[in-house]
Amino acid sequence: MSGIGRYLQGLLPALVPRLNAKRIIALGRGTDLGAEAWAKDSRVDVRTFEYPIFGAAEQLPSATSIYREAEALWVPQYNIPLFYRGKLVVTLHDLCHLALPETLRTHVQRWYSRRLLTAVANRADVLLCVSQFTAKEVERFLNVTPDRILVTYPPIADNWARASDVKEAHTPKPYLLFVGNQKKNKNLVGLIGAFRQVMHRIPHHLVLVGKRDGFLNFDTEIDFSDVQLHGRVLFVGQVSEQELRMYYRGADALIFPSLYEGFGFPLVEAMLHGCPIACSNASSLPEVAGDAALYFNPVEISDMAKAIYAVVTDIGLRAILIQNGYARVRRFTNDSGAVATALAMNNLVGQHLG
C-alpha cells in the first residue's frame, strides 16, 4: 500500500463520523471502498472512479462531471480537477516533484505536476499538510500564506496499532529491512552502496520490501543483476499487510535512507513493532522519528554504513531506540489529526451554506 493509502486507511474511519455533511460521496475503486467499515455509514455514497492517477483522462468531462454535485471537495493528493470551482480542501503529502524534479522522467510529467500544484496553490481554501516540513515546503515553493495551511499528522490505522500479536517473517536471519518503492528519492542506490561497505563486518541480509514496477519514475540506476551481493540482498517485492508486520517484527533494524519524504510511514510502523531505526537526517524524517532513530547523512555512503553497523551492534543504543520509539509513536495513534481535519472541513462547508 502506498503512503497515501496508509494515510486514508488511518484517517477515514475516524474522519467520516465527525463530518457534519448530510451526504458524502466517496470516489475510488468501488469494490475496495465499499468493503470499509466507514463506508457503511448511511450518508456515504461510494462511486467507482477508475481513471489513472496523474493521467490526462482524470481531467476529462466524463471523469469530472460528478464534482458538480459537491458543495465542497476534498482531494487527498494534489491531482485536483482543474475545472472545479467550488470549495476545495487538498492534502499535500510532499512537494518532491518540485524539490527534486529529476524524480519525474519526462518534461510532460514535470509540466503537468507543476500545473496541478499551481492550481492547488491558487484555488484550495485549505491545504492539509502531513508535517511541518511539508508546510514549510508549500510556503517556499507555492508562496501560500500560513493562514491557509493546516498541519495534521496522519493517524495510524487501528489494525497497525495492535502489534503485540504479530509473528516473525520466515526470512534468513539476522536481517536489515528497507520498506518503500524504488523512486529516486528513496535512495535505494545509496543504501545498497552502504550495505556493500559494511556487509563483511555483520552477518545480516538486507531485505527490500516494496513495489518495484508500475512507477513512471522508478530508479533506473539500480542494477538488480548486480545487487544480489552473494545472496545477501533479498528483494521480496510487495507483501500483504500481515506479512509486512512480520518483517518489522523480525528485523534487527529498519534502514530508511530517503533523500526526501513528506512524512515516512515506515518509521512509525517500525516504532510500533519495536524495530530500531537508522534513517536519513533529511526532510521530514527527524520531525517524525525524533529521538527514536539513529541519523545519517543520506548522500554520504560511509556515514550511512557507520550508522548501519552501530544500530545492529550497539546493544545499549538499540534498547534506547526501541524504548523511545514506543513512547514517540503514541502521538500517531490517536484521533487528533482526524478531529482537526473534520473541523476544517465542517467549517468550510458551513461557510458555504451560510
UniProtKB/TrEMBL annotation:
SUPFAM superfamilies: UDP-Glycosyltransferase/glycogen phosphorylase
Domain Glycosyltransferase subfamily 4-like N-terminal: residue ranges: 83-156
Presence of keyword Ligase: no
Segments forming domain Glycosyl transferase family: 168-327
GO molecular function: glycosyltransferase activity
Pfam hit, one: Glyco_transf_4
Keywords, in A-Z order: Transferase
Keyword Signal included in the entry's annotation: no
GO BP terms: lipopolysaccharide biosynthetic process
Name this protein carries in UniProt: Glycosyltransferase family 4 protein
